[in-house]
Amino acid sequence: MSANTLNFTPAVYAYYQKMAFRDTEILRKLREQTHKMSMGHMQISPEQGQFMMLLIELMGAKKTLDIGVFTGYSALCVAMALPQDGKVIGCDTNVEWTKIANRFWEMAAVSHKIDLRLAPASETLQALIDEGQSNTFDFAFIDADKKNYLDYYEKTLVLIREGGLIAIDNVLYGGDVADPSIHDENTKTIRLLNEKIWADDRVTLSMLPIGDGLTLVRKSL
User: Fold this and answer.
1) DSSP class of 67
2) Which of 211, 165, 170, 212 is nearest to 193 (CA)?
3) Could you give the 3-state DSSP secondary structure of residue 184?
4) Cα–Cα distance measured from residue 180 to residue 183, given in angstroms and rounded to the nearest whole number
5) Given a cut of 80, is residue 1 above it in pLDDT?
6) Contacts for 50-54 with beta carbons within 8 Å, 24 or more apart?
7) CA distance between the termini of the chain
């Protein structure tokens, strides 16, 4: 037993991935494709993707948001866990990155579950609210430009149903949030969001040391 989270040495992390993650060929190929890119580090860890798949299954989720699609790994994981009539609405602005995503979604036979909206995420989220889709989404994953995290959080909280779940990536931001000497815009925004969620009586939360830090937020009943 330990009162602290275990420090992952390379050997422990290798064992953790081996035992915690059941890989598939399509997920592996998408990771390999993404890691060849200059921005490949933006992809979530495979164990994080599998964790979200488990959450989708546990919740019986059918309607979800993916804010920050990149090359489509998180949306692919969620879509694979959704039932055949499930839906992911993906938000991104990058045509080249999402071309890769579309190709792998088609290869995985889940493209019919994913509705990609190529527009600024704030606009897409507001449009969904304006269409009357508030309180109808089961799950959302936020992993996009950090400067807009506060706006994404507020709009997503409107769209998520009571008892629904929001997963927010990069909440530890490489450890920079814990260093008071770091004051760049992204780090300051994530600090503000972490503090906001901690004090937000509209939700319950759990911050997990997985990947770059993942906060789970459940909208209160």
Assistant:
1) E
2) 170
3) coil
4) 7
5) no
6) 50/20, 50/21, 50/22, 50/77, 51/210, 51/214, 52/77, 52/78, 52/81, 52/139, 52/141, 52/167, 53/77, 53/78, 53/80, 53/81, 54/81
7) 34
pLDDT in tens, 17-66: 888 889 999 999 999 999 999 899 889 999 999 999 999 999 999 999 99
Tens-place pLDDT, residues 94-144: 999 999 999 999 999 999 999 999 999 999 999 999 999 999 999 999 999
Tokens of 78: 């969620």
Q: Where are the beta strands (DSSP E) in the chain?
A: 63-67, 87-92, 114-118, 137-142, 160-169, 203-208, 214-219
Determine what percent of the chain falls in helix, strand and coil, rounding each to the nearest 5: 50, 20, 30
pTM for this predicted structure: 0.95
